[in-house]
Design goal:
It is a single chain. With 210 residues, the chain is an alpha+beta fold. It folds into two domains: 6-80, Glutaredoxin; 90-203, Glutathione S-transferase Yfyf (Class Pi), Chain A, domain 2. The chain is built from eight helices and four strands. Strands 2-1-3-4 form a four-stranded mixed β-sheet, covered by helices on one side. α4 runs antiparallel to α5, α4 (90-118) packs parallel to α6 and α6 runs parallel beside α8. It is globular and about 45 Å long. Belongs to the GST superfamily.
Amino acid sequence: MGHSLKILGRTSSINVRKVLWTCQELGIDYQREDWGIGFKPTQSAEFLALNPNAQVPVLIDDHGVLWESNTICRYLVSLYQRHDLLPAEPAPRARVEQWMDWQATELNPSWGYAFHALVRQNPDYQDPQRIQAGVQAWNDKMGLLEQQLSKTGAYVTGDEFTLADILVGLSVHRWRNAPLAHPPYPAVEAYYLRLSQRPGFKTFALDGHN
């Protein structure tokens, strides 16, 4: 399928890396431009015309402009009809999307303060009580993932790798490499090692990213 694809966003963004790993799983080529912190500003009129939220990533292709990383990932997988990554049938598709949405709405918010404090070492995020609360919330969410992986024994929704594992896998890498006390989660650890065999995970997680 001939398809012109451009992705705007810096690779230090976990949301940009969701899209890049998805592209790698699909085997599609793209152009990428650095936008965001340290690069071209997302508050510029040029960027805001593409995404009024001033956030990366943004996708530009033959069909127009898209923002929101999870939506971009769904779109690309559907465009290339990779039903192994995102099933066509409503029930199995919903199970994959359930964990995609959990990553975005439950897991991501849990780490916000602690990540900025401990990893980014942002001076605006140094309240000890809020750091402690953030670490607890982050570990608690990972505990839910531990329970799920203990049931499936392989990937987030079952025996097969899906789009949900791209999103959740990058988040597991971020948690695992943050300087905090990690509870013993053997199923999460086994999952991490399983993902580490995939080229996309090696490129967009293991290769110096957090």
